[in-house]
């Protein structure tokens, strides 16, 4: 790392101290010239050098849109990857993308996935070039998302290790290598996406959280885990309909996460049936509170966002509350995503004012 980057890093440590810093869960829609819009696993429309340039251009736009909306912790909007799990896996040895099997993902929907045929390893960094590029574009704190070990094994067919736990440990080691290089590239927060944590509770508590801790071993930057009810795709919205009037999945995993070495827990809280008091289970941790619903095209009003944040404040200390989106916004239209970013920012601003007002009152009395 050069001294220029080191200087930026000190600067960033301070910016993170702002009250209620906003961020997204990760993905933003891609421009239609780069990939088919409103589609997951959408194929690239460009090739070779044009694709490399196109990804960089899309990243610049995603960054600018976050900045214009006033988002405090920015990301690449996942513009350089096709999918939040498979893009990493594509770069690993031991996985055959030609040999595909249909498996049930998250115990919920069928998908055609690649097969693990031998020991898994990472030959070279996967996201470091894109993270370095993002770092060069902004002095704001940046967050980078990686898939978590359990979600990775759940998006594969394993014909080699024949043990979910063993394969997860191998992935944790690989993720740790990648995370260390992302940290060196100037990433401030490394987030692991673990939607699988919301499904396989016994495994989460037996070895899932331990694997995650292996993935963050030796890191000095902030670390986060994102656990949600998924993108707003039909398989997920159908699943949500079966979960009843109270979604208590978080109750199974938050107590152990509270004890873990992870710094930030990113949760779905807006328009969901998650009882907000479950946030009490991770008291002491920083919480990225989802205050934007990604499963609807309706853009929240700032007041609706503020309401969710106010409710969360009963269970999360103000200095540890990070307003965010419920999940990624990749499947939404760009216009809707822009509206939602602006709503998040405006809603957080309302509550920030209220908190500051309270502080001034306390100081005066
Ligand atoms: Zn999510």
Describe this entry's structure for a reader.
The chain is an alpha/beta fold and 365 residues long. It has a single domain (3-360), classed as TIM Barrel (Alpha-Beta Barrel). Helices cover 42% and strands 16% of the residues. The chain has helices at residues 3-15, 48-69, 86-90, 128-137, 149-153, 164-184, 201-215, 234-241, 249-258, 302-313, 334-364; strands at residues 92-105, 109-122, 143-147, 157-158, 189-193, 222-227, 264-268, 286-290, 321-324. The strands form 2 sheets. The chain has a 6-stranded parallel β-sheet with strand order 3-5-6-7-8-9. Strands 1-2-4 form a 3-stranded mixed β-sheet. Helix 6 runs parallel beside helix 7 (201-215) and helix 10 packs across helix 11 (334-364). The termini are far apart. Residues 1-15 have low confidence and may be disordered. The structure holds zinc ion.
* CATH architecture type: Alpha-Beta Barrel
Biggest sheet details: 6 strands, parallel
Number of domains: 1
Order of strands in the sheet with the most strands?
A: 3-5-6-7-8-9
Question: How many helical elements?
Answer: 11
Question: Can you lay out the helices and strands and say which pair or pack?
Answer:
Layout: H1 3-15, H2 48-69, H3 86-90, E1 92-105, E2 109-122, H4 128-137, E3 143-147, H5 149-153, E4 157-158, H6 164-184, E5 189-193, H7 201-215, E6 222-227, H8 234-241, H9 249-258, E7 264-268, E8 286-290, H10 302-313, E9 321-324, H11 334-364
Helix pairs in contact: 2-4, 2-11, 6-7, 7-9, 10-11
For this entry, give a set of tags.
single chain, disordered N terminus, 9 strands, TIM Barrel, three-stranded mixed sheet, six-stranded parallel sheet, 365 residues, alpha/beta, 16% strand, binds zinc ion
